[in-house]
Amino acid sequence: MELLLDISLLALLLVTAVAIAWTRDLFAAAMFAGIYGLLSASFFMTMGAVDVAFTEAAVGAGISPLLIILTLALCGRRQRPDPSHAVLALGLVASVGALLIAATLDMPAFGAVDAPAQLHVAPRYINDSMAEIGIPNIVTSVLASYRAFDTFGEVVVIFTAGLGVLALLMGGDEQRIENRLPASPGGGSRDLILRVIAKILIAPIMLYALYVQFHGEYGPGGGFQAGVIFAVGFILYGLVFGLDAVRRVAGTAVVQLLAAVGVLVYGCVGLLSLLAGKNYLDYSALAGDPVSGQHIGIIAIELGVGITVASVMILVFYLFSGRLLERRSVTGNESIAGRAG
Known about the structure:
mainly alpha; Four Helix Bundle (Hemerythrin (Met), subunit A); 0% strand; transmembrane; cell membrane
């Protein structure tokens, strides 16, 4: 039964990928991309990677299609036919696919007991992580403690990506973004059903994000997943009630500051370890008992991760939505001027 489910999901993934490449309606491609993300999350669930499934469902099926749709509102939904580009893209995809398949031929079979990961890495984590870290979720032990340097790098990458989007969409203007964004026309959706449902859903979304944030030591979750879920709540609020309303709750300047604060929290935990005479990001220095120190350090750095991830996601939404509203404002003014002329 499990094999049949995996084959069905892979077949649906393949069909969805072909549909994304085949359609020339970019809005339909964005919808297919959301379906692809949801199918990927389901596939990760069948593999037992619940943490990855969390993130894929929120980002791949939620935020990414939304940002694609906001982009289409700026550049149009129809793809211009260009056979030469299609052939070039097909050749590039086929070449990369062939290289990936060739690389898998030298890899051990999935789940093989004699794989290097099973013989060297996994036994250490499975047998020793509870005594060294003291938390039941081995995934969190690996990501937040054993691989703390790598996770810190991932957080910095997310922060840098947010800065990149900020620099691109600001267009070199040194004015504050808050002043550049025009007011949301109409104040968001006027549909009573959407507004009532949003008011009902937003509070549980935020509560669930907090649960995922602070339950990562004992079950699937952590800062990355919680940050994305928290951002989804803000984005839903902005979509239904308007950009002005959500900016009054958390302004652009505040979100930018929080994005940096999250990285700073993570980095300062490592500095505290150094000041205590231990290695950088060695949480055992944060308390008299090494295991208690691990708990304190993991909670602190996961909080930093959640703050940065949520802030960057919200900031990207602000920037795309603001650029869209700015364009609509300019277009509306030009239309009024044309009628007046």
